[in-house]
Description:
By secondary structure, the chain is α+β, with helices and mostly antiparallel strands. 44% of the residues lie in helices and 22% in strands. Helix 12 (326-333) crosses helix 13, helix 13 (335-352) packs antiparallel against helix 14 (380-391) and helix 18 packs parallel to helix 20 (560-570). The longest helix has 30 residues, at 135-164. 32% of the residues are buried. The structure holds ligand C2E and calcium ion (CA) (2 copies). Ligand C2E binds at residues 477, 493-494, 504-506, 509, 522, 525, 549-551, 612-613, 636, 669-672, 690-691, 696.
Amino acid sequence: MSDIGWPRSRSSALQRARTRLFGQSEIVLTVAGIGAWMLDATSHELWWSDATCHIHGVPPGTEPSIEQAIEFYMPEARAPIAAAVQSAIDHGGEWDLELPLSRLDGTRVWVRACGRAIEQPGGHRLVMGTFEDVTARRQASDEARRELRLRSETETLLRDVIEGIPAAMTVYDREERLVLINNNYKQILPGAATLANKGDTLEDIVRRKVKADHYAPEIRNSQPESVREAWINDYLARHRSSDYSRIFELSNGNFVQVSNARSTSGNIVTIRTDITPIKHAEAELRYLAEHCSLTGLYNRPVLLSALSPASRGHHGSLILFDIDFFKSVNDGLGHGAGDLLLRLIARRLRRLVPSGWTIARLGGDEFAIIAPGLTPATGLVAFLDRLLACQRRPVRLGHARYVPSISIGVAPFAADHTSAPTLLSHADAALYEAKRQGRARHAFYDAELAARIQRRIRLSDQLRIAIARDRLAVALQPQLNLASGKITGLEALARWNENGEWVPPQEFVAIAEDVGLAQSLGLSIIDKALAAHARLRQMGLQTGLIAVNVSTAQLLADDFLESLRQALARHALQPSALEVEITETVLLDRSVVRIAETLDTLRTRGISLSLDDFGTGYASLSHITAFPVDRIKIDKSFTQGISASGERGLIARSIIGLGRGLGLDVVAEGVETESQMSFLKSHGCTAMQGYLLAPPMMPDACEQWLLARA
Ligand code: C2E
Ligand code: CA
Ligand code: CA
């Protein structure tokens, strides 16, 4: 067509040949969608049928040149088609090619282009051929190829997944036949791989595994048939239920987690994962959480849970012990030695204690044993003796030889609901009692101890109130100078009457120290003592010094010196009127340096110091000389050691000799008889105090007593 600008020179020779060669078949070709063309090899004239024009997207009747026709092909197809046409023009021959073509409107199609040379009578050569649009076929086969590739890719992927997951995988079909088993199955369940073959039924496989003891920790072939059957049925039922997950311990010690799921197509897919490393890590964590790292014994939480009423059994004992003077091992020999001692004690304990009992280290140097079934009737005391004896064997701590000793507290338990913490506190109270009785022994938590503890708790509450409400009293006991026969002092002694009961001072003074009331109790007594003393002085009575007992806790209190100064000022008394009695234990305290400073200050201010209960403690001579003491008091046990004939007063006599030698006054306490008094007098004792002269008296009674003497 003119608008395309192609030549339209219809050669009559070509038209004739067209009619002759195609004739009526041209219409058939057109209907079949096949285009025809013809080329005169000599004139290079080209004829396209209407179908050919249609394939190229040009109007019917278009007649392009060869070059124009070749231009329709995609660039990569032009060389092959040009060569084929040229070869046919030059030498004859034929071609059949599928090539990409760009139609006039730019759309792309695939064509099958066929051609061959035909020799005409007279040596004239024509080249003719057909065009067929094969785009649809090619697309269809492309699709099919892609589909195929995809399917094989999916299969590969699936295979990769099945073989690549670090788990054993099996698939059973609707008939419960094994249809898939992956290679990892052998790795994860080495023993079972030969028992499961494709095509076998689930039930057969499970029976074989049970027979081979594959699930040995759970089910064994040696177990009765009924048990095995029940287990197998349970297994099958679980397997059939659509989804489940459980953990098996296997006969080789490994753990597998089995998870099951029914697929949409009705297959049952089972994944078995080896969780042995997780189980081992879990066990390790549990061990760390439950054990003391130093001794390997259980720790406090484990003990408490084993001691709960539900787990401890009907009868037995909780035995608690600690190492006597453990602190001095740590302080003196170092923490390494302390740790070593703890480990040795733990090792001895492990050897001694029967299996099935629980042993724990509760922290510090405290150990506990739960002894099920062990009661006083079943050898408890014999066991405690063995425990004491085995721990008393000497040990080597570095270069040091050390003989450990322990104190034991025992809380027997019965079929009651006493909670674990309460039992522990009972054993603790018994342990405290064993210590109080002198250590290296055992004590039981019994009704008596319980009552004593109850009393302590009650008294400590009442004492707090009594001090706050100023309900304490002071008794005064005179001291007599043996040479002059004059009263040289009054000792102030604390008195407490609670609901008509006189509580012994030893008891409530100890409680006060335990519960932090020592200072307030002491100041209250000092105030009352000074008040009584001031009054007796005002009456012009001969009293000598006023002596007060002072404990370590008081001496260590920050405000002790200041409080004392204020008390003296309040009653307008000189420091020289006061004497402070301390016991030897004060001098043995760890804070000895601070105590020495306080005592020095007292002395500097003019207050006298006397050493009470001399000879009963562990103080040495060097203590007496190192501290600024004015007097020593012979303990009443030594005074009472002086018999009627005076023979047995050896210690009293020695103390008197010692005191005189050091230039100190000596006061004998607890003098009850004339013979004691004359013994003391004849041996040069300075003063005496005791029932023979006068008992401790309330200030009014003391006043009467002094008046009577005057
Ligand atoms: P202590 O300081 O050795 O007091 C002397 C104890 O001997 C007093 O006991 C006294 O009543 C008793 N006694 C006096 N004469 C005789 C006698 O002829 N024969 C016998 N058998 N005993 C006699 P008390 O009053 O029961 O005091 C006991 C302990 O309580 C005192 O022993 C002292 O250590 C402590 N104490 C008393 N009051 C106080 C205080 O205010 N503060 C402190 N820290 N301790 C005190
Ligand atoms: Ca005293
Ligand atoms: Ca005394």
